[in-house]
Fold each of these.
Amino acid sequence: MAEQEKSPLQREQQALQKPLGLKRPLSWLLFVPILFAFLVLPLLAMQVPGLFGVEHTSPDEKPQTVRAEKLPVNAHPSLQSTPVSNTRNTTALALDSIWNPGPLASAHANLEGDCQACHAGNFSRVKDESCLVCHGNMGLHVTEQTLPDTSFEEGRCASCHRDHKGRESLAEQNKHFVGADCAACHTDIKTVAPKTETLAVSDFAGDKHPAFRITVATGPEPSDLRRIRMAANTPIVEKTNLKFPHDVHLDPKGIDSPSKKVVMECANCHEPADTATGFKTLNMESHCQECHKLSFEPALPDRQVPHGPVDAVLSTVEEFYSYLALHPEERNKVNAQRAVLRARPGEKNPNRSNLRNLSGNPRAQAAFATVELFENTACAVCHEVKAVDGLGNTKTSGSRMPQYEIAEINPAHPWMPMAKFDHKAHEFESCESCHKASKSEEASDVLMPAIDGCQTCHAGSKPVLNKVQSNCGVCHEYHIHKKEVAVK
């Protein structure tokens, strides 16, 4: 058959039948150094590190204690904040790193030259014990208290967290729970955990997800947290012992401050911060005192009591008027200023009854100022205040003043501890689109949006036009951390 008549396949078969010549020896010459460099050397470095001038830690030698650095505010709660023991042996010259199948996630990038930091043993998959060296505070998916009532079994860390997939791989996996299907258990959750209060859920779309459960505080102690299921048209309240009408402060016409009328917005108090909650903690000095001054002497409006313990407030008032009694020249200045205030025509001064001359008993004057402060002008405006009988703290100068108790404010807590929410990702929306603060008259109103509000923008796991495709990992953590657990 002529050469030109042969098919391409026939010509390829004929070429393969030709003698190899030098190809075979050359392939062996290349194979041997590759085998030595990429297999023999790493194995020797792991098994006989002494050949490279490195000695393994003796089994009898105490493990090295590694001091964890101070964690950032927004660090993952699983990170170990206490000293941890490191018993691994770094492979000599990091020769095992040539087996690296791909870049580690950014959080683990510092371990790329130390394979045995995670892979304890030869050619073994990563064990949970290796992960827990750093992530010792990692919570379980089901709490230890409820685990006996379920048929749930925890999986391996690496079954969901697959590294060597790129710098951002773990962060993306954590968003979407790669390797785990939440709906496999939660669609029929009662089968897995018959006693659970969690309702069945298979997706976020429509009625496939139950109404949210909100954590509210029934008292100031951590044990006072309760979880309440939201219901349509049924408001949730949390008695905070604080008086704060959102509607008054968000009046579009503005509110009167000591100096001018001010139109307030949510951002005046709720300032973004790089924290777990996303906002800076509110405090009297930074957010309230500019308008709600703690003045007690009308003639000296800039002199204020501290925003703190009752006995510190009482001592401040008592000591001020005692000082005036002992220093006539200062008392005369205050009396002169009081006379000016009394002489102002047409001015509605709520403290006019307190503008008499300071010629009487200083303790009586201090007592009068104390009652005004606690019951009328300052404390009672925002707090639940109760007058009590008897002496106060006998170690303070205000022990003989009228005594008061201020109801303790419930500490801040996560409203949805089993979920996560990034306010920054929603900053293009107005606060009012989710939180109906301008219609709230009481501080006890829990201004948490219901699920149908979220579903206006978020679809489920299937894409929907003009909606954000959202699976379980977008809003939920898999692990339950102890500090997030509320009493049910």
Note: The longest strand covers residues 213-217.
Amino acid sequence: MLAIIAVILVVGAAIAGAYRWRSEQGGDAKQAKIVAQVIALVAKDQLGEAFTAARPLLNDERVRALPEFAAAWKQVVLPMRPVVTEPGAAVYFKTYDDIDGEWIQIGTTPIAKFVEAPRAALRIKIEKPGYRTGYFVVANPGPSAESDPPDPGFVDRFEYVPLPLSVENAIPDDMIVVPRTNFAISLPGWTSDLRGNNKLDLPSFAIDREETTNRQFKDFVDAGGYNNPTYWEELEFREKRRTLSWEEARKRFIDSTGRPGPAGWQLSTFPSDEEDLPVGGISWYEAAAYAKFRGKELPTVHHWYAPPSHPTTRTLMYRPRSR
């Protein structure tokens, strides 16, 4: 309780200083209000929001010289530059929560200078003629953004992960490129080190942008996927420590009317008005067969750990890319 009161007093004093600056040095009322807002956001550890709020003030040296603002800004900012694979690409960023805000141009790769950015999650946009525009989410500091000064906790343990671009039309529009990673995975009950000790060098790959929908899965059903052994080859069907043949296993992959399909379907079709909802009620085996039907593969746990570098990645399948 005392700590909370102390924080409130400190913030109150800083905000009072901002308004005192306005009265004593002729500061603008709107500027004083923004400074107070930035200070309050920093106190709540909302650094991305504080950065966005402060942007209109950054070209005013009087505001930057204000001790209360300078102290808050020092907590907000960590200069950074994204790590990008392709030269000659235009790179932009904005804070993760500022979805509709304007992109801030960083420069053209290779980028020499560090730019002011919040210690927070960032949205990165990369454009280059002949390549599909790349959108990424990176942490600052983090594996795809060099910081100044560098974060010793990261540099000592990891390699940087450059953000890749995909040549136009090289992969389907509904897939995205995930950078090569070699991070150690940490999962309760599987790895003993909280920082991770299951490490795999994973080449760059393409992954679905969205979940597989009922409509998409019905293509597999209508094409006779449940009856085509090609999609079920090399799968070992296990049930209560017993190995099943495909003929035994396929009898279990039925809908509520006993037809082939997800458990919640009827007569091998999805409920009305649910065509664009993610498919559910299927086993891992059915998912693997569907992925093969699409010419793709199910992700491993290492693939699942990699896609969070992109904000909309929720997937069922992936496609390996050449190194």
Note: The longest helix spans residues 2-25.
Amino acid sequence: MSGRFCYRCGISEEEGGPLIEGLCQVCFRRENPVLLMGDEINTELCQNCGSYRKRGVWVDPSTYEIDKLIFEVADNALLENLKLDERVRHIVVALPEEVEQIKELPVGEAMVSFEQISWHLEHFPAIVTYEVRVKARLHELQKELHDERKRITIYVRQTVCPRCQKFLGGYFEAILQVRAEGRQLTEDEREAVEKLVQEKVDEIMRKDRMGFIQDTIEKDEGLDFYMGSKSSARKLAQAIRERFGGSVSEAYELVGMDRQTSKEVYRTSVSVRLPKFRKGDIVGDEKGNIYEVEEVSGKGINLRNLSTQEIEHFEWRTVRRERMDTVEHEKREAMLTSLTPKEAQFMDMESYETFEIEKPNFKLEEGEIYRLIKIKGKYYIEGKKE
């Protein structure tokens, strides 16, 4: 009785197991290796910021500790260059001990493990050597899984990523200008804006690697931030407006011609103008109401009505509609000397001159010293002297 034989080694099907594509079990596994990677892989990390390419895109690392960073970059390079037989349709990366225990797999599935077995990290290129193990099933007639091991060496070299090339070259795409309407920024405002910008830049750069600040210029009238991308400048402008209020506008300046596309290149200036009002300002509206500014924010402004001492909130569109503006005024301190049903008599603490004003509808105490505001000959009570 004649049987079938492996065309590679000649063993009979009875001895070598079911033939697969004319090969015995051993020869089929030998002639159809699953792990098709080379012995060496070269990869790079940015010597300036620690970023590396992942799926073709430069990404920031999860750690900046140099040893851990090198392993992160090497692990990524190994996985991205993992090359298996095209008949493997599903890959599971597992721990070495998990792969060791696997005895059965569906056709077209592979389990892969890798572990670092030696490394040299003292200088670049850093060298990390792995043992990669793969178990897989390529054919339904396989009695035993493919079980392959290979040592692969990763060389991690230093380079400068495109973002850092631009940053180190002084590149910027937009200027974010922070100003205040009709006045200079206060020191407190400058510090608060710079703190907010730094917080937001860290957040923006997780998604936009070009969102860096190339330079910060302090000017008498405000702050200029030179930004790596227009989108980051716009996002920061909106964040500042939401926190402090104000308005945002853009302007464009022709700076040259792109040699590759022959298109005009414009630089964008994104301007944030903070409100004219600050805490403590005295403002008035078209109706003649006089207020003291209590709080300014992106949502609007809180004003204390000096006639009633009540706090009133106005949205910015209402402020513009009511044409609120600062008003010229004088400040003085005076003691309340007497009260009548209709008047309050005060004595100026500097000139000792006495004068009467219409008694307000909130409580006053004789003998106390008050801060007064004088506008066009009329007095308003700002508050009690502390």
Note: The longest helix spans residues 187-204.
Amino acid sequence: MIRKIGFAIICLLTTGMYAQDGSVSPYSYFGLGELRSGSTVENQMMGGIGMYADSIHVNLKNPAAYSQLGIQGRDDFGITTYTAGLSYKQTSLKSYTESQTTAVTNLEYLSIGLSIKKGLGVGFGILPYSSVGYNFESLIGTEGSREINQYSGDGGVNKVYMSIGYEFAKNLSLGVTANYNFGRIETLKVQSTEGVLLGSKDERVSRINGVDLNYALNYTPAIDDQHTLFTSLRINTQANLTARNTQRIGSFIGSPSAERFVEEVDLASQGREDTGVTIPTTTTMGLGYGKNMQWFIGVEYSFQKLTDFTNDFLEIDNIVYKDASTFALGGFYTPERNSFGSYFKRVTYRAGLRLEKTGMYVNEKDINNFGITFGLGLPLGNNLSNLNLGFEVGKRGTTSADLIEESYFKVNLGLSLNDQWFRKRKIN
């Protein structure tokens, strides 16, 4: 039955994946767009930390965690874990003079994890890496004769991945994820002057693809019969992607759709038809402690030398990239996992917080992001499957220096469905 439910959900979500708006943030104008969480709802609710691994949940951030999938203590029992997530994000955008509220619904991930045998697991799936979705304008000069620059963009980068995790020594697991990145980013700049019908436009399209690898090493020694220390080191290697670019420039009369003279730019002669996009290495270290299957608390620190980011085709003048970093704290508590008398004692309660220095330095201002997360893991059926409901409130950016402050509220819904896929036949 769970297989049928999981298959129906995957088909439904895949249908909607290509219709999503992705982002409504003006900060998706920079880099490759607004970076998505890249983790399951369970991890997002704990501030986004990715060191924790158990036998019934997929961990998209930590490939070494696949080594723990399956029923603990049984070599002949295979488990398939289907997981999918959706999000609804409402954002209030505020400048120094005005404000507005907008919202977007997105697919967060589709994934399947398989326990091959005790200590060995694999997984594969698809998830968005970044989303582009902005529409804003800047005014220069005095009223009546101002120059109007309008900027809009959409698209983003997705990734298809395959992971393997193996416990090669007691309490020591190694994992690797191979990501294939692909996507399309479209941008449009329209320039006009008040009182003048003639204007100009610049359309650019980048088709992006390439591969990167994510390595993870987990060490989880038992402190005593019930408590475990969790340590993790993850390295997402530098992604050297390729962008195939096209550009159209021209003029219009009255409306950008009323094109007058528009021509393709010969990017090949300029050496810009095929350009590189470099996403620097991200290193994450984590430390946590918990009581087996009852509670856990952990901290993680990530850093990235974003000064090495390059995208030669998209020309943006008012940004400088600095080194980026993220501090995250989170955990969970399950009162009594196998309680027969109370359903709420079997519910898992999660919470966390995240402080992110995005590395974007716009108009001489650092763009930081702070979020608080919390939610519930609701058991379904035999307790191996669960429905995860999460919430996040946060703030990014600032209203100074003609910038935008975003206050957001995000609702996450995730399903983790587990089913037996193999059992050795036994003859009595």
Note: The chain has one domain: 2-241+276-423.
